[in-house]
Design goal:
Length: about 160
Amino acid sequence: MTNRFRFSYLPILFIIVTEITTNFAFGLTLSEEILPDTFKNEIYDAGIHTVLLKTPGWEFSLPVLDAGSRDQLELRFDDLSGNQRNFGYTIYLCNAGWEKSELPEQEYISGFPTGVIREARASFNTTYDYFSYRLLFPEENCELIQSGNYALVIFDQENPDNIV
């Protein structure tokens, strides 16, 4: 029996946290003290709207993956600030109370827990200028190997000290 089938019934639940984070892979180094004590499904930047986390191709799905599978989730959101920004992300394992787990990254992620949101599309023929962002994750260089709750933390790479 392969790992894919052995873990197929252990769900992984995600919430979106638009918060700042530590991101060593892309030259951004922030203190762990900046992370919230408890992750919440909140938006901290007034320009961010229409946040959706779902299974690709299924608009009303829950943000749940099977541990050990190569399934992905799709994150979409709009930035109404009018400027294209560079966003990064980090994935954290959380306990049942959505507090950051004490486990080291290597025990719950194989590969890199950080990345960059590369897909951005400018609006056209609209009253307001905005950019739509899209991320499919986990990416090729990341595999979630532990079942549990995960927080997807999004931050602005240009100004990582400000909450997005």
